[in-house]
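In response to a reviewer's request, we include the raw inputs and outputs for one of the modeled complexes. The two entities were modeled together in a single run.
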Amino acid sequence: MSGATELVVNVETISDGVILHPKGDVDMARSPALRTKLTEALKGKPARLVVDLVDVPYMDSSGLATLIEALQTTRKNKIKFIVCNLSPRVRSILEIARLTTVFTVVANREQAIKA
Amino acid sequence: MNEPHLHARILSRPELMAPMRAMLCELASRVGLNETECGHIALAIDEALTNIIRHGYKNDPDSHIWISVWELQNPTGLRIQMDDLAPNVELKKLKGRELDDIRPGGLGVHLIYSLMDSVHFSRRTEGGMRLVVEKFHAHAAANSYANVKHNSQV
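The model returned the following structure tokens for the whole complex.
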């Protein structure tokens, strides 16, 4: 059987940083692709890193762990780390893991760029 | 216990998690669980499979996982059993970590306990671990509870 379809992560440069836009479920099979893109983005030491989850209908604890890793790196390097456009299902897992107050979570990309 | 409504053996490969999620979600929907409850089942099963593959089988892609599913009545719900042949782990270690400790990893077991109505880990006599989880339809569970309460008052 062939492997899972690779997670597509679009990368967009903004004036003070980078927006990552993953498309698809982020689970154990696909979270490594998101981790790779986050690591690449963080190497550039942007002032702001936004993860736009508008096209992520599902995320498990592998995805959460990937976001927490990125959060820890951004805190060390004084980078603003913002997640936006959470679906109700993804928001629910953040709530169960009590992470909604740990991450900066905003409604949409416009707010993420200004936050 | 009666014959399961579904019994499957899968290889310990992450790419099989998405189809298992979809199938269990569809089954849950067919027995009357709502979208939120189906989502909870999908996520709990995903977390259980992740733990078996990553921690039990150390990412070996050719080990086996057996999944059995029973439809439950009174109250309406699903019972899902997952068996593996991974080395035993200490049962007391199978509990969620403190959520105030913000770090990657260790969330899976906490999520399983949070999302399901009953969770039971055990060692299999033939080797490996067994996890049995149950999820009930909220209204059915409430009605069942009301009936039990009513009967106990009679």
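As requested, we also summarize the result in words. The longest strand of chain A covers residues 8-14. The mean pLDDT of chain A is 92.
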